Amino acid sequence: MRTITAVCALGFAVLLPGEAVAQDAPLPPNAETAIGAATAFSVGYGVWLWEAKCKKLPPDEAATFNAAVTGQMQQLSAMLDLHLFQAILGAGQSTASDPDSAPPCDDAEALDFARFGVEMIKDAGDKIAQLPAGYHLTIAN
Question: What predicted TM-score, i.e. pTM, was given to this entire model?
Answer without folding.
Answer: 0.81
